[in-house]
């Protein structure tokens, strides 16, 4: 955090109608303990108000509000023999970014403490949390409702809200983001006034007015709309990597590419490049020879979008990776799955809700959870083996396999296909039976016994259960084990 133009910041803060939980005006108060208590109170107030910063301003009379100047000077202030800034940082818990600025404006001296909360937990000074109630500073423990609300606020702030790049001029901020892509995705006419463009970006949480004449770009804005992700240190390692191998293993690669644009601004071109490089089957359509991709594009799109949206951004140095082999495609993102792999189709949970919401609004993925359903439906329609979901401690990997006939599938692949087919049928309230599974596997009706063997094994291993415990074998129906 850096105050680039303190006079501009002071003018902007003076426009606030009233003091608030995150803003306090003072004339002169050189008591270090009193300042420390206000730092705690204002930091906690900023978290409750979902603000990025709180401000303690010296040199402004509040009632009536006017600039009067101050004798406070942070740079020379001490607590005993210790420099004030060092003492303050030592007394505040958890550690905060606190910018103490002394400056002259209109011939008068002012000082501002700009406080950036950590959203880790309520902020303490000398072991005690404070909060601003009305116009008074109080101990947080005396107001249990505020304390509960503050603890809830500490879990609300996510990676998307943090600042990727601060103190950008309006022109520079717009050059770093693909603003035209935003208006294309939302089907809105781009405003002629630049100020209206800023309002749109601010309303969506992509940039923030830093209150001293410049703008801060959030991680959300950067990860979605960056013209070049390398311009943003916080997301530089989150660029999508695409690797194509020759054959079924990693022994020899064809090429490796790293995406340069944001997830939204670069999504269409990334999908186009990906689909062009996927293995194809040569076939004839109405007498015309065509190369048809082995994988349905909706499955690739939704699995890619899921990897982007549900990754764990706190894992540094790792981003989504797409690996293309001759017989499969693997999409990996940092962070384990928040959902058990057996419940991928029926449960809904998002790690980065604002990112997910923006991608849905932009039309780049389905509504929450619907994308995986459509992926599985498309896979079944092409009679491909069921995808495999592999969740480990620090990553989530989805493997989409190339075509295999029923006889070519191994036992594990048949069981996986049976289970997810059973889940899909349960979702539409039409439980799986031998006939539906034969159709899924493209098995002839007179070969029902081979499919019965798959069902029997799934029951034996407790992957599926009869829909009705009293049903007979004829026209028997089945549901996932967790639905029985």
From TrEMBL:
- Cross-referenced Pfam families: HATPase_c_4 (PF13749), SLFN_AlbA_2 (PF04326)
* Classification via InterPro entries: RecG_C_sf, Schlafen_AlbA_2_dom, Schlafen_AlbA_2_dom_sf
Q: Which domain of life is it from?
A: Bacteria
Gene3D superfamilies associated with the record: 3.30.565.60, Schlafen, AAA domain (3.30.950.30)
Q: Which residues form the Schlafen AlbA-2 domain?
A: 19-140
Name the record gives this protein: Schlafen AlbA-2 domain-containing protein
Q: Which organism is it from?
A: Methylobacterium bullatum
